[in-house]
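Sharing a chain and its predicted structure for anyone who wants a worked example. Both blocks are below, sequence first, tokens second.
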Amino acid sequence: MQFDVTIQRTEYREHVFRVEAENEDAAHAAAMDASCDYDFHDSPVSSADEDVTAVVPIAPNDQAETVDKFMVFDVESIGLHGEGFAVAWVVVGRTGERLGEGCLACDPMECAGTAKNRRWVAENVPRLEVTSPTKRHLRNTFWHEWRRWADQGAVLVADCAWPVEANFLSACVKLNHAEREWQGPYPLHDLASVLLAMGADALAVTERQPDELPAHHPLMDARQSARQLVACLKERNDRHPL
């Protein structure tokens, strides 16, 4: 079960820690452990008391209902373990409405990778408009977009997130580790796991809508993944209404 635990510390600043625990006592202990690694100076001043805690259980249905924005993203990289040179995202609501989308790319030569994988990229990934002068700019710009949507309650989703998307997020964090260490997606949701849970083949090649072509364009791939996610959410809700 999940709990939101509010802990107040330095200079009357507080932070809410979401933890998994069997009961309120265990949740309190888990949040206290988490607070040892949290810099409370990043939190706003809220009141004049210290060490105030509140433990609030979150019902499973409440958790599901509170998530109504999904930021589905896709990264193109120089091979599975090379650096990402393009990233795109589509933000959708539960019923499939698109709330926003975008695509960023830098020169692939900016990014590390093998000659063999560079040839694959040249032969399979459509030419993308360069929007970022460096890979650093690419990562920072995406990170700020992710945080903008996260602040609005969005969760982050990728299709088969390991290793490409996961490595890209780690590269973003490393640009400003002190600030971003605790700002990443928790968890990073994977469309493949959702498809598996619904009884579908997570690795099947499926048909694309006209605005999801061509393949290997990060925005088109993200659009397809977002549509598949929404279809799974609808099917799940039809089977088990909240």
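Comments welcome. Residues 173 and 179 are 8 Å apart (CA to CA).
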